Amino acid sequence: MQDALLAALSAESSxxxxxxxxxxxxGILKHKxxxxxxxxVRDRPAAEQESGGDDGDFDALFDQRGHWEEAPDAWQQPExxxxxxxxxxxxxxxxxxxxxxTARVFMxxxxxxxxxxxxxxxxxxxxxxxWVMLHRARMALRLCLEENWFGKT
Amino acid sequence: MMLSCKETSRxxxxxxxxxxxxxxxxxxxxxxxxxxGCRNVSAQFQFLRAAVIKLSDDGSKENSA
Lengths: 153, 65
Fold this sequence. Notes:
The structure holds two protein chains of two kinds.
Chain A: H1 2-11, H2 21-50, H3 78-82, H4 85-97, H5 100-110, H6 116-123, H7 127-150
Chain B: H1 5-14, H2 22-34, H3 36-64
């Protein structure tokens, strides 16, 4: 933001008297913001790949041979939970807890019902990475709901 | 091929996002037959899908009310 202001101030004289400063300043700031967004979008695929091609964040759930350290229990009365407002509130809280990018992919898939291929294309990531993020979202939601809803008796 | 639980949870998730290959489906079925924990996770992943749909439905109802 600071370089946008500097650019605005140094160019100010050439616009003297011709334009409402505020409008113009807002305009150039917007342009800068658009540039920043474009740059972020352009850089995103690379950064995305770096941030993980696997789902190592859940390694702690498994032993060295890949078996559950603690086998997941069945959830009691899941269908009944769907009818409860408190359950939906708990689910919403769990969704909000997801990292923003993971949540975005998950909601594109489950809420908007987009195909994985469409989501990958939209976000400029590989199919494999999409699957990893979706798996990550489901694992995180599973743990969150277990902790905040189904684990409570 | 014998799947670990870790691989199974990954395939269960991918099964919701793409068509699994025949070999993957067989391996999954074999593993689920002997593993309670993964059967539970399978049901939970399916439940998550239903739950998000339910959440979306309720949200749109409240907005239109």
